[in-house]
Amino acid sequence: MKRILNFLFMExxxxxxxxxxxxxxxxxxxxxxxxxxxxxxxxxxxxxxxMKKMIMLYLKQTPELLNTIKESTEEKDWVTVNTAxxxxxxxxxxxxxxxxxxxxxxxxxEHTSKNxxxxxxxxxxxxxxxxxxxxxxxxxxxxxxxx
Length: 147
Hints:
Helix content: 55-70%
Distance between the termini: 30 Å
Largest sheet: 2 strands, antiparallel
Strand order of the largest sheet: 1-2
Strand content: under 5%
Radius of gyration: 15 Å
CATH architecture: Up-down Bundle
Structural class: mainly alpha
CATH topology: Four Helix Bundle (Hemerythrin (Met), subunit A)
């Protein structure tokens, strides 16, 4: 686990300049790239069928969680937002999504755990959704190459 966290930390330092949401810099691993399946490939020992299943699970769950987050944000239901965001975080590592999105998710959790609205919440929700949906599009293309 320590190696994984260290790897993620080192990878996050590679981000040079990026847009900022609140106090969090955003954006991709490299221009036009939103996922890095190295970790998934390692965890599945290169088993393409298992990789495909994991990606399909991400593609199924992520839009549902994003909808829950958006609807709950509009309703100011911070407990539900917090729970849905918490469920998303492990998928960032598995799909190799830029660590800035995990940081955004954790910041969103911090805000919602206080049970009060801040101006930063809708911005974080928007950027989190944008990044996850772009990752989904990329993964949809990737899944076809896995056979």
